[in-house]
Amino acid sequence: MGKLIKKEDAYYPDKEFKKRAWVKDNSIYKKANRDPIKFWDELARELHWFRKWKKTFKHEPPYFHWFTGGKINISYNCLERNLEKRRNKVALIWEPEPKNERERVFTYYDLYRQVNKFANSLKEMGVNKGDVVGIYMPMIPESLIAMLACARIGAIHTVVFSAFSPKALNIRLNQTNAKILITADGYYRKGKEMNLKANADKGSKGTKVKKVVTVRRTNSKIKKKKGDCYWDEVIEKQKDYCKPAEMNAEDTLFILFTSGSTGKPKGVMHACGGYTVQAYWTAKLIFDLCDNDIFWSTADIGWITGHTYSCYGPLLNGTTFVLYEGVPDYPETDRWCHIIEKYGVTTFYTAPTAIRMFEKEVGKVKENLKTLQLIASVGEPINEEAWKWFFKQVGKGNCPVLDTWWQTETGGILITSLPGVGPFKPTFAGMPFPGVQTDILDNKGKKVKANQKGNLVILPPFSPGMLRGVYKNPKKYKKTYFGEYGDKVYFTEDIAYKDKKGLVRIVGRADDVIKVAGHRISTGEMENIIDSNNKVAECAVVGIPHKIKGETPVVFVVLNPKKKATEKDILKLITEGIGKIAKPQKIFFVKDLPKTRSGKIMRRILRKFFTGEDLGDLSTLANPQTVDEIKKKIKK
Ligand code: WTA
């Protein structure tokens, strides 16, 4: 293993590191920048295509297409493509949360058989190419098998995070008209048995779901309704081969809902061809996946990181990877260290919120974690202290820390330093991935200078794995992503700046999205849910800084005259509408909210009460007296 060399405020890989790395120097950036389309075209060839594409990139602003005319199947690339060389290699190691249970291990051939069988089960249930299948599942192997089986027959999966409430599930199922829902009886979290099937039943009420397939995980009693079946029963009698559907590169592979500024979650659509190329190549070059690596991404499959790096990315690369069911600090605070040691994890991918939690709970890491070679972070800005702790205590000063920036919409990582190139500079994500063009613009669309903050944008040809639309909502697609600078510039809704060397640092969001423990939550969506209650006249939700979670929501509620409500009532609205992950830190009942003369709620001021920042000029407010009232309430 190599060493890291410190130069000024950053670290660089030494010769030994470069030896192992797929990318050893800067030349790849130069090559890719010269002709990004040609660059991606060459990369795409390494995968298996039933038919080669005719056109590499087609731009019909605000839409764009990659590899049109090509035919591909991601499950074929994850499975068959690996069978020749890695039939008996371990693909997936599943670690259950209860320590008295054994892990489950699947070779590439095991997975291949399971996926084929379940693909045949889906077919038997009447699922056709282009149908949407709902997946509401915990972190168990069957969840990945279900995703791959959908992909195999060309059905579009839409995974709903298992901690989302039945109502949140209901909204997503209704938007996509899913006819089948795959779930589990339950799962373990912090030692508790969670009943998932009951939520699945509640959430599928009033939708088009005709059949619920349940995996037995906890073996708890479930209510079986008409049309319901157990996973093991449907899969048992199936043949172990199902011909993979030859998908057009631009066919939809999956829909994943995510939060934006406004009320309803958006169904982000990803395409079969481009997503496969991006998942494969970013996983390979960024995590430097080699044949003897053990990769562990802690991300739940309910989020994009779970799709790309807890499932598709490692499988496309023929990697052995770990999937863990529960929380990383249960039953001991250093359970995650034990998992790294038990399997000899070489590459560990997690989120700043987890890193800060480990730091607080464990402090000094006594395990030597000697197998680790690369450690990486995603989901929210990583503060310098957490970066340094991660680097010293987990990486022992020998592992590059990759700070990877991307979004549900981008499908794969778009900004990070590459392990064989560096630099690894605390709080800086690094350079855009080769072949990706980004910029930082002011509100007028002018490039900002080094060290000046602005809006992070992505320029044509974008990247193959980026979204192809918002499900059934082309207007939203255009307005959200191509509304700021015209239809040829994708606005990430992130604020960032570059240092003199061009390394990008992400500052935070420009919109009303907050990151709570790495989970993307819309304060607008929370407001909608609270406002929909007839006791509430109006409300405002803001994200305030939190030591471990990064951000946490705080709610201000103005009640209707003569109506009464308690904190508990508001909390119930939120946990029922979204889930516990959106639980506010505090709920304040106030008489009025600070507003501009045109009636706009000044959320910025509300936030500043908690950050200690100067409140600024209040003279433009229509109701400056509310500021004192709220201040007093918060102090109390
Ligand atoms: C934020 C997660 C700073 C950012 C993959 C982005 C980050 C949003 C980083 C997308 C990072 C993600 N540094 N901020 N390394 N990675 N973000 O869709 O605001 O859940 O726009 O995708 O997370 O969140 P999403």
Task: Summarize this structure briefly.
The chain has 636 residues and is an alpha/beta fold.
Protein structure class: alpha/beta
Helix proportion of residues, in percent?
25-40%
Instruction: Give the ligands present.
Output: 5'-O-[(S)-ethoxy(hydroxy)phosphoryl]adenosine
**For the residues shown, what is the average pLDDT?**
96
Distance between the termini: 55 Å
Description:
It is a single chain. With 636 residues, the chain is an alpha/beta fold. It is built from 20 helices and 32 strands. The protein has a 7-stranded mixed sheet, sandwiched between helices. Strands 9-8-10-13-14 form a 5-stranded parallel sheet, sandwiched between helices. Helix 14 (352-362) links the parallel strand 20 (347-350) and strand 21. The longest helix is centred in the N-terminal third of the chain and has 17 residues, at 108-124. It is globular, with a radius of gyration of 24 Å. The N and C termini lie far apart (55 Å). The model has no long low-confidence stretch (mean pLDDT 96). 5'-O-[(S)-ethoxy(hydroxy)phosphoryl]adenosine binds next to helix 12, strand 22, strand 26 and strand 27.
Topology record:
Layout: E1 4-7, E2 10-13, H1 15-20, H2 27-34, H3 36-44, E3 55-60, E4 63-68, E5 71-72, H4 74-78, H5 80-86, E6 90-95, E7 104-107, H6 108-124, E8 132-136, H7 141-153, E9 156-159, H8 166-176, E10 180-184, E11 186-189, E12 192-195, H9 196-204, E13 211-215, E14 229-230, H10 231-236, E15 247-248, E16 252-258, E17 266-271, H11 272-286, E18 294-297, H12 304-316, E19 320-324, H13 335-343, E20 347-350, H14 352-362, E21 374-378, H15 384-394, E22 401-404, E23 437-441, E24 454-459, E25 469-470, H16 474-482, E26 490-498, E27 504-509, E28 513-516, E29 519-522, H17 523-531, E30 536-546, E31 550-559, H18 567-577, E32 586-589, H19 603-611, H20 625-635
Parallel strand pairs: 6-19, 8-9, 8-10, 10-13, 13-14, 18-19, 18-20, 20-21, 21-22, 31-32
Antiparallel strand pairs: 1-2, 3-4, 5-15, 6-7, 11-12, 16-17, 17-25, 23-24, 24-26, 26-27, 28-29, 30-31
Helix pairs in contact: 2-3, 6-7, 8-9, 11-12, 14-15
5'-O-[(S)-ethoxy(hydroxy)phosphoryl]adenosine binds near residues 380, 381 and 407.
